[in-house]
Amino acid sequence: MTQFILDWIAWGGYFGIILLMALENIVPPIPSEVIMGLGGMAVARGQMQFGWLVAAGTLGTVAGNYVWYWIGRRFGYQGLRPFVDRWGRWLTVEWEDVERITRFFHDRGGWVVFVFRFMPTFRTMVSLPAGMARMPRWRFLIATAGGSAIWNTILAAAGLYLDRRFQELDRYVGPLAIALTVAIVVFYIYRVVTWRPRAG
C-alpha cells in the first residue's frame, strides 16, 4: 500500500494529493495520516515543496468534508428522518441518536468543527451535523481549513522526519492499514448483528 501511494503521488503530484485527501474524507480508503506522511517523504526526496503539499492536502480535506456538509444542508435535520427510519438497522442508529448529535452540535457551537479536525473519524463525521444545523458556510469552511491545515502540517512534518526510516516504516504501514480496515469491517458487522432498537 505504501508503494502504491508513493507511485500515485509521483504520478499525480499535488493533484494526486488533493484527490486522495478528498476521497479519504468522503469514503475513507486510505488514512490521511498515511497520505500526508508519505507526502512528507516526497518532500524529503525533493519531489515536492512542503508548503504546496500542505496546501494541496488542506484543499482536498476541505473539498471532501464539504460533500458531507452539503448533504446535511441539502436534506436538513428532518429530511434525514425517512432515511434513518428505513436504513437505521444497517446504520445501527435511531432517530434519537441523530437528535442527540444535533443537540450536541448546537450546544457546543462552531468550535467543534475546528477541534474535531484533529480526531480520527469525527473530523469527517462532524461535517454532516454542521450542514444539518445550517452552520454558515463561510464559518464551516474557515474552521475546516484552519484545523485541517494544522493537522496536515503535523502529518507532513512527521513524514519528512521519518523519511530516513522509510524501509522500517514501510514494513508496518501496509499491514497496519489493512488490519485497521479489517477491524472496522468486523466492528461494523458486530454492531449490525448485536444492534437492537430502543424499546418504545
Search tags:
200 residues; mainly alpha
Describe the protein:
By secondary structure, the chain is mainly α. It has one domain (2-194). It has helices spanning 2-26, 32-44, 50-79, 81-91, 95-108, 111-116, 122-125, 127-132, 137-162, 166-194. Helix 2 packs across helix 9. The radius of gyration is 18 Å and the shape is globular. It starts with a helix and ends in a 6-residue tail after the last helix. The mean pLDDT is 78.
Calculate the mean pLDDT score and round it. Answer: 78
The best one-word shape is globular
Number of strands: 0
Percentage of β-strand residues: under 5%
What's the Cα radius of gyration? Answer: 18 Å
- Helix and strand pattern: HHHHHHHHHH
Low-confidence regions: none
- Total individual domains: 1
Q: How would a crystallographer describe the biggest sheet? A: none
Classify the helix fraction into a percent range.
Answer: over 70%
| SS class | mainly alpha
Q: End-to-end distance, in Å?
A: 47 Å
Membrane topology: Multi-pass membrane protein
Protein name: DedA family protein
Transmembrane segments: 12-30, 50-71, 140-160, 172-190
Main location: membrane
Element layout with pairings:
Layout: H1 2-26, H2 32-44, H3 50-79, H4 81-91, H5 95-108, H6 111-116, H7 122-125, H8 127-132, H9 137-162, H10 166-194
Quick summary of this structure?
The chain has helices at residues 2-26, 32-44, 50-79, 81-91, 95-108, 111-116, 122-125, 127-132, 137-162, 166-194. The protein is 82% helix and 0% strand.
